[in-house]
Amino acid sequence: MAGTVNSQVTDAIAEGGATTIALAPSFAMSMTYITMADSIGIQMENATSNQQGMQITTNAAVAQICTLIIAKGASAK
């Protein structure tokens, strides 16, 4: 009895292996899609951060120009 294996056990193991092999392509593609979505999300975060930085630079430049215009106007009188 120690050397025999029930045929139902071997069938279940073979079925599990076949199911794993059959699902591998769909799991691989789902991981690819998840990785791509994560990468695009990070790129959008970086783009937003860069845009905010450029807006801060623009605001500082406009403030400096307005200061120079006001100073030039006051000294012209």
Short key terms for the protein model shown above:
77 residues; mainly alpha; 1 helix
Distance between the termini: 113 Å
Tell me how many strands there are. Answer: 0
Share in helix: over 70%
Question: What structural class results from the helix and strand content?
Answer: mainly alpha
Rg from Cα: 33 Å
Q: Name the overall outline.
A: rod-shaped
Number of helices: 1
**Mean model confidence by pLDDT:** 85
Oligomerization category of the chains in this entry: single chain
Low-pLDDT residue spans: none
Q: What string, H for helix and E for strand, traces the elements in order?
A: H
Give the biggest beta sheet.
none
Q: Report the β-strand fraction as a percent range.
A: under 5%
